Amino acid sequence: MINAVFIIRKGICIFSRQYGEKNIESDRFSALIEGLNRFAENISGGVLQQVILGKDTYYLSVINDILFVYQHDELKSSKLEKISKTFSDKFFELFHVDLIKTENNPSVYVKFETEADDILKMKGKPFHKKMHDFASKF
Fold this sequence. Notes:
alpha+beta, globular
């Protein structure tokens, strides 16, 4: 299950949505993840794909210099890639012009909350729970 998502641009969190019980401070978290990702790029020439902090696992995807970070409960990477692609495609579809005009103004992206909920929670049910409910009917 996806518990949180963060969209980070140039070290600034331009969008976040949290579904779990934890409340992650998005500004500090974004700075940490951006710093770790830049460090990884400098050391290895590649970007981070996963970060584990204690019991929390984060999947990272960088598209057009925008970092998408998903905190999840042990989802398979193929499932995370599918969710990430759907999520980022919808984000760029809605905000490609705003990204050019507004730079890092988080208030512009608030209207993405409903779309994020629909994609990440499948209209109130976690992505994997909806699939489980469907499979249990057989």
